[in-house]
Specification:
There is one protein chain. The protein is mainly α and 309 residues long. Helix content is 55%, strand content 7%. The protein contains ten helices and eight strands. The strands form three sheets. It has a three-stranded mixed beta sheet with strand order 1-3-4. Strand 3 and strand 4 form a beta hairpin. Helix 6 packs antiparallel against helix 7, helix 7 packs antiparallel against helix 8 and helix 8 runs antiparallel to helix 9.
Length: 309
């Protein structure tokens, strides 16, 4: 059996990367941060509609319902690219809402969800709809703003009955797509660290020539590739335990790689002008979405106990 991406899948990934490179590069990222600080909003509606036109949100919607008709493996590749670009907004929830909320598939609507404990909701102030614990739209009134680690992920606390996130395929899909976003960020911070290690010189040579820096970059690559394997495998099997494992590994890769990337950059990495801190802050928030590390560990432990019986 061939587990390599098909040519169509590689073309899909390349197309999304080109789209985001042209529409959401570093200048646009920084402009989003400034706009969010001024207005509390981070979703570019024009770009959101472009993503809809490109099939980003309708990717898994059947063709007879106006979608693209692809599956989780293709969605994972697309979300990986969004994670690389640090594209802000409730991408996962809007993708899951395609076919449920009018305009979500086309990018005309921004949809968020109860994907955090608390219950907390991201991007509530700019969302047109909110998905409840069962994946169906629910009515939510204004919430209380909560300070967020990520300047591009505004949070609000709301009062609603019932658990914030349900179990089942809806939650698993959300967790896997979030893991794909984390994977993209982890891979991107590897690139940032390696590039800086080649450019920055100390004692007359690039810092990448020093063993300590080599080890950091190598460890980052290993984490990212292990997470990639887990995420891709879970996309093929859609097994809940494998999804939990993929989320656990992708969260670890995104957070620890961003920290190591900061270390490679040294003092420069801690400045506001560097982009590394944005990857770390986003990784912290995503690690709490859909399935936390503790919840993933419990799911894996339950699977192991069931297999041992």
């Amino acid at each position: 059996m061939d587990f390599q991406p098909t040519q169509d899948q590689r073309d899909l990934r390349a197309g999304v990367r080109d789209l985001l490179a042209g529409r959401y590069g570093r200048e646009e990222l920084r402009a989003s941060v400034d706009a969010a600080a001024a207005t509390g909003r981070s979703v570019d509606r024009a770009l959101w509609r472009e993503l809809g036109e490109a099939g980003f949100f309708a990717l898994r919607l059947p063709e007879d319902e106006g979608g693209v008709g692809l599956g989780l493996p293709e969605a994972v590749l697309v979300f990986e690219e969004a994670g690389r670009a640090l594209l802000p907004g409730p991408l996962v929830a809007t993708h899951l809402a395609a076919g449920l909320v009018a305009g979500a598939a086309e990018g005309e609507s921004v949809v968020t969800a109860f994907d955090l404990e608390g219950p907390l909701v991201s991007h509530l102030g700019e969302a047109d709809a909110v998905l409840g614990a069962d994946g169906e739209p629910v009515e939510v009134h204004a919430g209380e703003p909560v300070r967020s680690a990520d300047p591009l992920t505004p949070l609000a606390r709301v009062s609603v009955p019932g658990p914030p996130v349900a179990a089942g395929p809806y939650r698993d899909a959300g967790a896997l797509l979030t893991a794909a976003l984390q994977l993209g960020s982890a891979l991107r911070t590897v690139e940032l660290a390696v590039r800086y290690a080649k450019e920055r010189e100390q004692f007359g040579q690039p810092i990448g020539g020093f063993q300590a820096v080599k080890h950091l970059c190598a460890q980052m690559l290993v984490r990212a590739e292990v997470a990639r394997t887990a995420v891709y495998a879970a996309a093929v099997t859609a097994d809940p335990a494998e999804v939990a494992g993929a989320k656990l590994l992708a969260d670890e890769a995104a957070v620890r790689n961003a920290r190591d990337c900061l270390q490679v950059h040294g003092g420069m990495g801690f400045t506001w002008e560097a982009d590394v801190h944005l990857h770390l802050k986003r990784a912290w928030v995503r690690a709490e979405q859909w399935r936390t590390a503790a919840q993933a560990e419990e799911a894996l432990a339950a699977e192991l106990l069931a297999a041992a019986e």
